[in-house]
Write a structure and sequence with these properties.
Elements: E1 10-13, H1 35-48, E2 52-55, H2 63-70, H3 76-83, H4 96-117, E3 123-126, H5 147-157, E4 162-166, H6 173-179, E5 186-191, E6 211-212, E7 220-225, H7 231-248, E8 252-256, H8 276-292, E9 296-300, H9 310-326
Parallel strand pairs: 1-2, 1-3, 3-9, 4-5, 4-8, 5-7, 8-9
Antiparallel strand pairs: 6-7
Bound molecules: zinc ion (ZN).
Pfam families: Hist_deacetyl
InterPro entries: HDACs, His_deacetylse_dom, His_deacetylse_dom_sf, Ureohydrolase_dom_sf
GO molecular function, one term: histone deacetylase activity
Length: 328
């Protein structure tokens, strides 16, 4: 492991190319507008001053190298359709800018992982990362390529012990499916009633109660909170997840820090009532365990449907709390 005695800046992957990911109009017109990434990074630059470096994933792009990395987790037809033909089921027709933005999001995570493995940072953040619904052979749920599954395999290949934690309000089904036979632990905290409805993660027969759907032989853990469950439900799951993480003692934590469980109007009708205090509690758990186990941390934004205000503020607070604790 690298020398961690000297303070390293927060490593962020962000570039204007992310703004080309347009499922609707600009400026908050679609609930998943990547303007949230731009605002989150601006907040972090302001708050962390000289302790943050922002890298543009669009620079020095090498599409052949990207394809080689994608091939580790995705099928040939899915890669070819998006990268060569600019076609995918997430959009209609051939849209080069969408395909290249989606690829840049993936590349951002690739570069963040290289930085972490190279000892250039201990904490890295890709606000348009953690595209957790993407499957081997198809995109899903606004997610084109599964950067976190790729990252977990890359860390494992480097001899480290990665663990994936996902508190996006939707189950991290793509990551689970891609890692379920690898032995890498995947932990997901989500609303059991929402998309995607993976029966290995959500029990639709038990929606009246908080419940777990663990697959212990696959090292997969799932905590299902309720519609309108607030911080109490979130903290229940976070406390249980902390025990599982403690048992694995990972030296890499991959975090899908979805902000879509936040209370209030969100454009997609998602009914959950987490507050800032809940997200801060969750961030502190990750920071504490990462500190205890001398772990490096990769954070991806995943979902968040209040793009102009709550989503970027939650991401900024979560990232700042984890970074600050680990850079003391
Ligand atoms: Zn989500």
């Amino acid at each position: 492991m690298q020398d961690r005695t000297k303070k390293q800046p927060l490593w962020v992957e962000y570039g204007e190319i992310y703004l080309d990911w347009l499922l609707g109009g600009r400026s908050g017109a679609h609930p998943s507008d990547p303007i949230r990434a731009k605002i989150a990074v601006e907040k972090l630059v302001e708050r962390l001053k000289g302790s943050i470096v922002v890298h543009d994933p669009a620079l020095n792009a090498d599409f052949e190298a990207d394809k080689a990395e994608l091939a580790k987790i995705h099928g040939e037809a899915h890669i070819h359709g998006a990268i060569d033909d600019y076609v995918d089921s997430l959009w209609s027709g051939s849209r080069e800018s969408m395909a290249k933005a989606g690829l840049a999001m993936f590349r951002g995570t690739v570069r963040a992982v290289r930085a972490l493995l190279g000892g250039k940072a201990r904490v890295a953040f890709n606000p348009q990362g953690a595209k957790h619904h993407a499957m081997r052979d198809n995109s899903s749920g606004f997610c084109l390529f599964n950067d976190m599954a790729w990252a977990a395999l890359e860390f494992e290949a480097a001899g480290l012990k990665p663990l994936y934690l996902d508190w996006d309000i939707h189950a991290g089904d793509g990551v689970y499916e891609l890692l379920r036979n690898t032995g890498i632990p995947t932990l997901s905290i989500h609303n059991g009633s929402l998309f995607p409805g993976n029966p290995n993660m959500q029990d639709r027969g038990r929606l009246s109660e908080r419940h777990t759907v663990h697959q212990l032989d696959e090292h997969a853990y799932n905590w299902n909170v309720l519609d309108d469950d607030g911080d109490e439900g979130f903290k229940w799951a976070i406390d249980e997840a902390a025990k599982v993480i403690e048992g694995y003692a990972p030296n890499v934590i991959l975090l899908a820090a979805g902000a879509d469980g936040h209370e209030g109007q969100n454009g997609l009708g998602i009914r959950n009532q987490y507050t800032y205090a809940g997200f801060e509690y969750a961030a502190d758990m990750v920071a504490e365990l990462a500190e205890k186990h001398n772990a490096i941390v990769l954070i991806g934004g995943s979902g968040g449907y209040q793009p102009l205000d709550h989503t970027p503020e939650i991401w900024a607070r979560v990232v700042e709390r984890i970074y600050s604790r680990l850079s003391d």
